[in-house]
Amino acid sequence: MREIVVLSGKGGTGKTTLTGFFAGLGHEAVLADVDVDAANLHILLDPRVVETEPFVGSRQPVIDPEQCTGCGLCTELCRFGAIDRGRVDEIACEGCAVCFHACPAKAIRMEDVISGQVYTGDTRYGPFVYAKLGVAKENSGKLVVRVKQRAREVAARENKPLLVVDGAPGIGCPVIASLGGADLVLLVTEPTAAGFHDLERALGLTRHFRVPAAVCVNKADLDEEMTAAIEDHCRVVGVDFAGRIPFDHAVVRSLVARKPVAADDSTEAARAMRAVWQRTLALL
Amino acid sequence: MIVAVASGKGGTGKTTVATNLALAGPDRVRFLDCDVEAPNAHILLQPELEPGTPVRLPVPVFNAAKCTGCGRCVEVCAYNALALVGRELMVFEGLCHGCGGCVYFCPEGALEEAQRVIGVVERGRAGKVGFFQGRLNPGEALAPPVIAAVRQEAAAAEDQLDTIVDCPPGTSCPAIAAVRGVDYCLVVTEPTPFGRHDLEAIVEVLNILDVPHGVVINRADLGDGEVEGFCRERGIPVLGRLPFDPRIGRCFNTGRPVVSELPVWRQTFKRLWRDIRDAVKGAGAGA
Questions:
Q1: Which residues of A touch B38 (CB under 8 A)?
Q2: Would you say residue B286 has pLDDT above 60?
Q3: Domains in chain B: how many in total?
């Protein structure tokens, strides 16, 4: 099974639009959304959820006030400022359990925290796995890994040769987690200085982890000069350029209708996105 | 007054709003770019940056001569960042959160703490704007310590200067590190089902963190009415509606702020800043 992860560096460049469009192309594939703290692909794919799996991402301390002697060692040792006078700040806590191991009165126990849900569903485009991180919960990286595991299980079961993953913006924890096992990263950028700047950082990341990358520019006609500069940059650094997608009101219309852009080539954006996916799949 | 500019969804226009707010708003202002994975405000504000301060995270260093192979360090590590192979300890630095547990609990004193660099905080000035930004090194996973370092370095000034915090997108640890404890959060969204979905997520986080907030709808003419409906339903004030204007992107690209290029926008952002100030005063009076 081969795996493509769609990333961007900068947010809002069109990762989900492009992944949603891929769904409509009719390939034998499993789709996954690992932008777990702002998952949106399910809005376009409208899955019928067949399985919901609670995700235990971390553990947090619970203090027994009966046993606590108020010695303050936990507060002193906590590097995250998350425990003070018998109270745990659940948002600041990173689950390191130093307090639990150190407490001389054994007044602290660690409890599992359900930090999100993993959903496996059927869509008219094929199987789809996504997740929702609980409000103000951490360990999004681990949840990303779990979604990808689940998606691979589904791909194996249903004999699908391809997994296409809609990723998160940025270059940190959830993005790094999404690179594990990827055969190719498709980077979606936009012709703005910010888009270009963050693309370079994202390419720094794919180089660091030695994952092949291809680049496409969305809303390319909003600044032709910047688009040309990005394409040149790709040539210079030896990264495949997968194409340009024009700004098209049809994209906004299909988004508002909660549907992927129709893969019927009736719009400029659709023709361009089809070409981008053809080039991208050829690189696998 | 510290005002965060945040959004659940990426690419809604946080940085455009935050930078223009800084330029059109108060006479003197501090600007913190806390989107350390994708810091972009410098492109628009063009500050002269001083050499940066490295952001360090503690990491264990192993002394094989003292190790008895008891495995206590591996047992206490909650992040699977340590593995003992015979009496050789492998440290996976990228997984380490720097909690210090392994060092504290090693009965033989075979572990010490060193510091490794995961990013940088840079400061500079652009006219009336005192500028701070954090940059996470590519390949590093933990953005929150870099965000905390930016906020600490700015807070050290202790001059009560109005401060604008440009936040990372999303609703997990990095966004929380940027918005926690601010006086007000301006949420930038777009009127699409994606914008509406992610707006709800960030509003839930802000409610838990007890941060007063209002909404700006960007590209307000491209989409549907669901965001307006959601705000009405939840009683969240909509402080501004910005129409889609392709000139904004081009201004950004050339480093020319919208408020100086397009005068109509200066008034918009001036008013927005005034409304935020009133909202913060109102919240203070209500408390």
A1: 9-11, 169-171, 194, 197-198, 201
A2: no
A3: 2
- Evaluate whether B244 touches B254 at the Cβ level (below 8 Å): no
Cross-chain residue pair A12–B104, CB shorter than 8 Å = no
- All residues of chain B having their beta carbon less than 8 Å from the beta carbon of residue A13 are 10-11
* Domain identity same for B10 and B65: no
pTM over 0.90: yes
pLDDT bracket for residue A15 (50, 70, 90)? very high
CB contact under 8 A, B38 and A198: yes
Domain that holds residue B184: 2-26+162-286
Interchain proximity B209–A169, CB inside 8 Å: no
Interface test with A, best of B194, B202, B218 (most A CBs within 10 A): B194
pLDDT band at B216 (very low <50, low <70, confident <90, very high): very high
pLDDT band at B229 (very low <50, low <70, confident <90, very high): very high
Query: Is the residue at B135 inside a domain?
Result: no
CATH of the domain at B98: 3.30.70.20
Q: What values do phi and psi take at B6, rounded to 5?
A: -130, 170
Tell me, yes or no, whether B16 and B59 share the same domain: no
- ipTM for the predicted complex comes to 0.93
What fold does the segment set A58-114 form as a domain?
Answer: Alpha-Beta Plaits (3.30.70)
Q: What is the CATH classification number for the domain harbouring B262? A: 3.40.50.300
Per-residue pLDDT of A25-59, as tens digits, reads 999 999 999 999 899 999 999 999 999 999 998 89
The answer to whether the CB atoms of B79 and A96 lie below 8 A apart is: yes
B79-116: burial string, b at 16+ Cβ within 10 Å, e else: bebbebeeeebebeeeebbbbbbbbebbeeebbeeeee
Q: Which of A97, A102, A172 lies at the smallest CB-CB distance from B78?
A: A97
Question: What top-level class would CATH report for the domain A2-46+124-283?
Answer: alpha beta
Q: Do B12 and A138 touch (CB under 8 A)?
A: no
Do A92 and A125 touch, CB atoms closer than 8 A? no
Q: What is the mean pLDDT of residues B241-257?
A: 82
